[in-house]
Design a protein that fits this description.
Elements lengths: L39 H15 L12 E4 L4 H13 L3 E6 L6 H14 L4 E5 L8 H21 L3 E3 L4 H13 L4 H4 L5 E3 L9 E3 L7 H11 L15 H11 L5 H29 E3 L4 E3 L6 H16 L5 H12 L3 E4 L2 E4 L4 E5 L7
Parallel strand pairs: 1-2, 1-4, 2-3, 4-6
Antiparallel strand pairs: 5-6, 7-8, 8-11, 9-10, 10-11
């Protein structure tokens, strides 16, 4: 199979047809593609994995789902493109962060691969500055903002990304090294709102979390497509590179089992969130001057989660874990403390109100 030629233009913006519904009969209605289409067994596996995340039961009406692919041009996203394009019409977008000299040509090549498969493709350039989340964190923020804008403009219900089991294992190792709690150790979520402030908006879906990177590389190799290679994946500047090296050097650290553990931890996290909601119904009350919380004999983790929700919902504040732990210890001892914009007083009933503005000197 020839490799896709580099296109003349930076993008195509023609509208893609709406994806067909995914049902038990979907395999018989797969799109006719170049011979690069993955093995039917892999397509069946992918269709099952995707269906667990975004296909409701009963199946949706014809054309109800519109799906986009976040395409970097690397082997993982190219494998996702090959799988997704084989089971239903999709669109693809490449975000050019402009952080490397070759980024523009890599985006063009990714677009050529998409069009070779009959997938409409678009490139969006973003500006990234090194900020509080570091260069990679700021690039991620800009990338998801661009994907969100694209999804809303194109009327897409879901954006698929190519995060896989190796990514999940690396993420969990990094978070363990930083002392993350239960919520942090749930790792990469399989599905969530693309914009956390818009729960009813487009979804961010990761259907490959049960797949190994080597499997995705093989799909691209068989298709005869040359993927881009991001040098930052091999840079010692980033913790993820060290986590990747540890996994490669330690065969008994199985990424598939990491992914399974993340699922179990996610179930536990969701159960605690449900219990926290029930706790707050009786424990939280709003007064004329602020908020009151009665911890009673509730487990510490339930109270902690309740406080986090209270800070976010009533004071638009998002304290870090250590700061919240220190405040809880102070309030449990009957003391008074301040965290961010909130002044708190302990005792049998904990009270919270907006802190008075600081006097300027």
């Amino acid at each position: 199979m020839p490799r896709p030629a580099r296109p003349m233009a930076s993008s195509t913006t023609s509208m893609a047809p709406q994806p067909r519904r995914r049902s038990r009969r979907a395999s018989s209605r797969r799109r006719r593609m170049p011979s690069a289409a993955p093995d039917p067994a892999l397509l069946d596996r992918f269709e099952r994995d995707l269906g667990r995340l975004i296909s409701p039961d009963p199946p949706p009406s014809e054309g109800e789902f519109r799906t986009g692919i976040a395409l970097s041009g690397g082997p993982d996203s190219l494998a996702l493109l090959l799988l997704a394009a084989a089971i239903g019409p999709v669109k693809a977008m490449t975000v050019d962060h402009g952080l490397r000299a070759d980024s523009a040509s890599e985006a063009e090549t990714a677009g050529a691969a998409a069009r070779w498969l009959g997938v409409p493709h678009e490139i969006m350039k973003v500006s990234v500055r090194d900020g509080g989340d570091g260069l990679q964190g700021e690039a991620r923020r800009a990338r998801y903002a661009a994907l969100g804008d694209w999804a809303r403009r194109e009327g897409l219900a879901a954006i698929l990304t190519a995060h896989h089991a190796d990514d999940q294992a690396e993420t969990m190792l990094m978070r363990l090294s930083r002392g993350a709690g239960l919520s942090g150790l749930t790792g990469i979520r399989p599905v969530r709102p693309l914009d956390e402030t818009d729960p009813s908006g487009p979804l961010l879906v990761r259907p490959l979390l049960g797949w190994r990177k080597v499997e995705l590389e093989a799909i691209v190799t068989v298709a005869g497509i040359e993927p881009a290679r991001d040098p930052s994946n091999y840079s010692d500047r980033f913790d993820r590179t060290a986590a990747r090296a540890l996994l490669a050097a330690t065969p008994w650290l199985d990424p598939i089992r990491f992914s399974s553990s993340a699922g179990h931890l996610r179930d536990a996290d969701e159960a605690l969130e449900a219990l926290t909601g029930r706790f707050l119904i009786d424990a939280l009350s709003v007064t004329e001057v602020g908020v009151e919380l009665t911890p009673g004999g509730a487990p510490r983790e339930i109270v902690r989660r309740g406080l986090r929700r209270m800070f976010s919902g009533h004071f638009d504040a998002h304290p870090d874990g250590p700061g919240l732990d220190r405040l809880m210890a102070t309030l449990a001892a009957g003391g008074t403390g301040m965290l961010g914009p909130v002044l708190a007083k302990g005792g049998p009933i904990w009270t919270f109100r907006a802190a008075p503005p600081r006097r300027s000197v």
